[in-house]
Amino acid sequence: MHPIRRTLFKTLLASTVVGLFGTTAMAADQPYPSKPIKLVVPWSPGGATDILGRMIAKGLTERIGQTVVVENQAGAGGNIGTTSFVRQEPDGYTLLVATSSTNAANPHLYKQLGFDPANDFAPVAFVAKIPNVLEVPKSSKFKSYKELIDYAKAHPGELNYGSAGVGSSQHLAASLLKHLTDADIVHIPFKGSGPAASALMGGEQLDFMIDTGSVNQVKAGSLRALAVASEERTVALPEVPTFAELGMPKMIAFAWYGIVAPAGTPDEIVTYLNKEINAVVQSPEVKQHLEGMGAQVPPPEDAKNFANFIQSELKRYGDLIKMSGAKME
Fold first, then answer.
1. Both 232 and 144 in a single domain?
2. What residue numbers bound the domain in which 144 lies?
């Protein structure tokens, strides 16, 4: 090769290499987020977890300038989507709606879980909790919590309660009530909270439920709420007393929801997402929508506090499930 051409070739090659490395460095240095984010909802569309996830996705999209796409991955009580999620890159571009079922109850119910509840997640932000509500059909003869429990004690094994299945929030809440009152009540599990609520409204197969998702049916008059299993009355049902007001301060039962990232996600990304998600949840539109669902919206907390909360819930649900005797085959 002619010396001048050889020199020109080397110069062009060097420029190309520098350009490639420069482009790579620039891509690596791009501020987060620089592309769309996937939010995994480990449940089917239409339920409370999905509705909540889509509210968060919409609010985040508006705040951060990148699209947040919801992806439903349902199955095995939320375990399928959660197991798939923990295998994703810890780069902040895949998030999960964690719940009290997947991240607190399931580790005590399933032998083959598919993930480590203590070490596979980087907790980001606590979003909301929905208290369980003691409900009876509108045709029920029970007008108060006391009437229901007095009857249950006087007629062992006669009253039936429904749930979304063994180990569900409805089952565990009623198990807690049974433990605290020594009432002999019979569990009838259904394949989902929808069929259970329908059976309750029918008023023939079930006498009551302690549910998290029937606020609209109560407001519509299809069900009658007798007590709320929370520290204070809910915005959605302000006229319904808490169990504590009725002399049962230990009857606290609720489902909770939050956003987590895969373990190993950089702290600066977790901090950024915590700030933005808290802003979304505290916005008047989202907060009002959540409270309309019967949810309680906590004050903004950092990721560390949310992590501590999850650990405490793991223990609490372990105790609850041991007490209830719930097992998954």
1. yes
2. 133-246
